[in-house]
Amino acid sequence: MQIHNLSKENTILNVFMSELRDKTIQTDNMRFRRNIERIGEILAYELSKSLHFKAKTVETPLATTEISLPENEIVICSILRAGIPLHNGLLNYFDAAENAFISAYRHHKSTPENFEIIVEYLACPSLENKTLILADPMLATGQSMMATYEALKPFGTPKEIHLVSVIGAEQGVENVSKHFNADTHLWISTIDEKLNEKGYIVPGLGDAGDLCFGQKLQQ
Ligand code: URA
After folding, report:
1. Ligand 1 centroid vs 107 CA: distance in angstroms?
2. Number of structural domains the chain divides into
3. Domain containing 128 — which CATH number?
4. Could you tell which of 32, 195, 207 is best to mutate to test the pocket of ligand 1, judged by most ligand atoms within 8 Å of the CB?
């Protein structure tokens, strides 16, 4: 897998990341959602550098000019519910993309660290020969990303796959690296060291879904 870890460079992304992680600033849910969306836009921009471009002619009011435009047919797939602001950020830039949504949640068994991913709702266009972007803001164990990909397989074989995340844990990145083939790209803002006993990324930022949309009752 080709890993593009954007934290290796100092850019404006650091400001958005520090606000997302800061426990005082993250109480402002609107800012939290907007920061994830802004990061989605940055990740979309970086990802766009790997797309396939072809020269097209554009007519201005004064003359014609050539410009290279991406040819990929993109499908963005996000996992509800924390994926929504990241999805919006990607769609702001890839506004011609088709969209897929999946609901997947952690079903805890005997202990907090022992859980399986349950996939329920799934809405997806054909993926045949398309560019699939799988977006999950928190790549903790990678299980949601892998379960989503497995659930999407009946919808066709994509030409290429891009995984997009805000924060990953080393463990999750390693797990998805083994699951997806070598030409899959991972576009990620930063990779944190570890997971705690409940499967949360440390230092991470907490529960992204709750910080976007408020606390849920536990199942
Ligand atoms: N999901 C989250 O929202 N946060 C984590 O740290 C891991 C998974």
Report:
1. 14
2. 1
3. 3.40.50.2020
4. 207
